[in-house]
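User: Structure tokens for this complex, please. No commentary.
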Amino acid sequence: MELLVQQLVTGIATGGIYACMALAVVMIYQAIHHLNFAQGEMAMFSTFIAWQMLAWGVPYWLVIPLTVVISFAGGVAIERLVIRPLGDAPVLSHIVVFIGLFAIINSLAGFIWDFTIKPFPSPFGEGSQFGGLISNHQVGMIAVTMTVLVILFLFFQYTRVGLAMRAAAENPASARLVGIRVGWMIALGWGMAAAIGAIAGILIAPIVFLEPNMMLSILLYGFAGAVLGGLTSPTGAVFGGFMVGIIENLAGTYIPEIGGELKLPIALFLIVTVLVFKPTGLFGRTVVQRV
Amino acid sequence: MSMLLEVEGLHASYGDFRVLHGLDFSVEKGGISTLLGANGAGKTTTLRALCGMIKRSGTIRFDGKDISGKATEDIVRLGVAHVPEGRGTFTGLTTEENLQCGAMTRSSRAEIARDLEQAYHWFPRLKERRNQQAGTLSGGEQQMLAIARALMLRPRLMLLDEPSFGLAPLIVQEMFSILRKVNQEEQVSMLIVEQNAGVVLELADTAFVLETGDIVMSGSAAEIRDNETIRAAYLGY
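Assistant:
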């Protein structure tokens, strides 16, 4: 029983990270209808920035907001400089650009900070709660991801900018006709996705350790969450992220054939299964267009 | 009477294919003009060109200022509300969110709240449906929503693209009587594109007849309405 609870909590904690990555992916997908393969590398780079500031002796409480702001600006810059000029280019052009971004950011991080694995301190310190059942870091992960998700929900539901972003993603032509600056809304979406990724990176780094390839599997789980919940549904993506975290941990613990080594294929298995049986995901909607 | 919208030599094309060949037309301040013509005459293209949604050349003066080089968002911000073909509803948002979107360029929350009530006063059906997803509204309700959303801009000029399209005659009557009231009480000028010439000629004061990208006839709505030849040749009723 204790093992089950422990695995569930671990699943929810890492699931929160996958949920954040899934949400970041979906936010960009909704705006430009392409999957950002470089989402994980952007998050990894943000985490290195945080690590560098910590190494310079900047206190942790200042590092997190600074990293979020820098990542936001970086996300906006990438959209303005790289994605926007692409415009309506075909899918393959976008894929090539995303792969290029992936390689550039990955190599750049390795060039600046080298590829050795670095420990990353938890912002919540060592120690555990509930008689060793949950580590402080897991409690912190759950609290922070939940807070981020609630804030984002309130932002999209109750602010005018949030409404403008939803309108721009849903129907860009109509959004322009009510005076919404659609281009800037997309840039804002990139900035926010980068900022969410930064938080996810900082939270997961103490567990997977810091190195340029740290986000590869995390993004894969994020994709699995997004596909499971539905690429057209932010709520679905968040739900999917948590589900993937829980499934991954329970399967790894209770199915001996899977164990720790075969956890990653679960994500791929989920992606394929969902795409075969319910391509829109659990919460996604089929887009029907009148001709 | 001075002109709110003056268009001279308006050309537009889709790629290499030229659709408009130098149109001249205008809308008076506080007036209603209509662009009539058959399918494919270039009516929708004309409205899209005015709003900068497609490449165009020529002069477009709005309240004396040339807007022919401006982006869509900036033209909207001057007070030009376009009710597009197919209504342009944000189907995933609620009715009320759609209306809020219409007021996106305005800042005073109090005024927006007041205009929201005014919109519900014009279109009581929308109030019943305020929290419903706009995609689930009927065609008539979505057209009402499109007009109400345009009014939330506090526009000086409304561009309406076939507002009667696909609607029952009774609903069309109701909608045009609301448009008349909006025009008279709020001094909103209008440019209405229609195939349903009979109804719109009752409302408009000036009419322009468009045929394959050229204006072939213009005059007061009454003249066009009473001219048997034009009616038979271009308007088909």
